[in-house]
Amino acid sequence: MPAPRRLVVLVSGTGTLLQALLDAAAEPGYPAAAVAVGADRDGTEGVERARRAGLPTFVERMGEHPDRASWDRALLGRVRSHAPDMVVGAGFMKVVSAAFLDGIGAPMLNTHPSLLPAFPGAHAVRDALAAGVAVTGATVHRVDAGLDTGPVLGRAEVPVRPGDTATTLHERIKTQERRLLVEVIRRLARADAATASREPQT
Ligand code: GRF
Is 139 in the pocket of ligand 1 (CB under 6 A)? Predict the structure, then answer.
């Protein structure tokens, strides 16, 4: 059984997506495990969840840097220091640069609470509700230099119910989002490990 793929997970909030990955990694044979968790702000429940799980954590606040490029470089250094096989944006509310994506030496995935390309950006749930769609959902995608524009790796549909608020709808989406993220990473990590096992051992 190859070693689990190393995930560096980036959070900005309550970290229930991270928790789903932590719980999945406890399952025998799950092919990926978080090795470090980072945040762009202090006081996130996501970092507390990582600490409770005994994982290394880091916080890189934009306000500690003279400009965005400096923050981006600092975040890149933190992520690289944990040698990720995959970087996962799990409710991470910052846009990283092309230099960051080139520098991490691994693919970056993001999870987004709408059926991309519909409703990109930071207010996807509110925007879907305001648009009056009957069905929205969650998307896991590769991160590219755009905003929520990378290749889609998986999607899960979620119905909008009468009387839904952004909060009730978002919680329903997150239930599917957590399942989707765990399954997409399982699939990618298995494929990764299979490829690694076929490569000639140098
Ligand atoms: C998720 O729906 C994510 O897509 C969005 O914010 C939520 C984060 O949830 N950006 P949590 O912090 O993992 O609980």
Answer: no
